[in-house]
Amino acid sequence: VCAGTLNGLSVTGDAQHQYRTLHKMYNNCEIVMGNLEIVLIDHTQDLSFLQTIREVTGYILIAMNVFAALPLPNLRVIRGTQFYEDKFALFVLLNYNPNATHALRQLGLNQLTEILAGGVYIEKNAQLCHVDTVEWRDIMRDPRLEPVV
Prior knowledge:
This protein is α/β, with parallel strands linked by helices. The protein has helices spanning 15-26, 136-139; strands spanning 2-3, 31-33, 36-39, 55-56, 60-63, 77-78, 88-93, 114-115, 119-123. It has a five-stranded parallel sheet with strand order 1-2-4-6-8, with no helix packed on it. Helix 1 links the parallel strand 1 and strand 2 (31-33). GO terms for molecular function: kinase activity. Keywords: Kinase, Transferase. InterPro entries: Rcpt_L-dom, Rcpt_L-dom_sf.
């Protein structure tokens, strides 16, 4: 079990500092108590340490990154005890560099079966594949919410 963050899009230091902080917080972590916020991570960084995460109690924010794949193959549940922008449990935004070929291409949420509370927002990810083929309503518990993809 490890603690999550509540920083939103604000970051401290450069991309290298962001990565070191992320690695220190989530290496060998299975349950994130709070939010998993991955912001401003470079395409050269190894994110394989995220593979152990099975559950996030708050929300997941993936924004302004340029890595190709998000390695969360064992994530099964986003509980949504906290929301990003008051309603989202999964928020994926602006994960590409308009001046280069580096961009998020796959989310890698193969085992995600439940978002217990909150919605899904996935937008402005120029090279992200297959998000429109996912039946987000089957994963989201709240039938009143419409996924924004």
